[in-house]
Amino acid sequence: MKKYHFPLETVLNYRRHLEDKEKQLLASMRVFYDHERQRLTDVEAEQGRIREELAVLMTAPFMHVETEPYLAYLRRLLKIIQLKRAQLDRLKTQLAKQNEMVTHAYKNRRVLERLEAKLRETHQLAYEKEEQRFVDELQLAKFIDRRRP
């Protein structure tokens, strides 16, 4: 009997390649998202630190002289925080879409792998059946040879 060959092997390999590509893209997007989230956390921490410094300056008698640069910096930080949050929301949406694409690629690959497993099992059963038929023929031939005088 011929050796087993899956006729859609190239398609299966291509789908595996696509799934790996989608997974790599998702991983890089997650790294970027985590990096941007950390940058937002850092900016928010800086904003908190500046607010504390400003609160200390407000209690000092010379507050009107030095507070204006702090307030301008706080406004700039607030703008950066708003932009980062909007960017993180967009990235989160993109991550969800990419995750769906990875899931879809996984399902496509699994369909072909199941088909391959089913065809391999069918081939194996046919091979075993043919082998059993051959053994039966040999046993029959031996039986007939023994019965002849």
Offer a concise description of the structure:
This protein is an all-alpha fold and 149 residues long. The protein is built from 2 helices and no strands. Helix 1 packs antiparallel against helix 2.
Q: For the CA atoms, what is the radius of gyration?
A: 35 Å
What is the CA-CA span between the terminal residues?
36 Å
How many DSSP helices?
2
The total count of strands amounts to 0
What structural category characterises the helix and strand content?
A: mainly alpha
**What number of structural domains do the residues give?**
1
- Element pattern in H and E: HH
How would you describe the shape?
rod-shaped
Residues in helices, as a percent range: over 70%
Strand content: under 5%
Low-pLDDT segments, ≥5 res: none
Task: Sketch the major β-sheet.
Answer: none
Mean pLDDT: 91
In words, what does this structure look like?
This protein is an all-alpha fold. It starts with 8 loop residues before the first helix and ends with a helix. The relative contact order is 0.13. α1 packs antiparallel against α2 (63-147). The chain has two helices and no strands. The chain has one domain.
List keywords for this structure.
149 residues; mainly alpha; 0% strand; rod-shaped
Helices and strands in order:
Blueprint: H1 9-59, H2 63-147
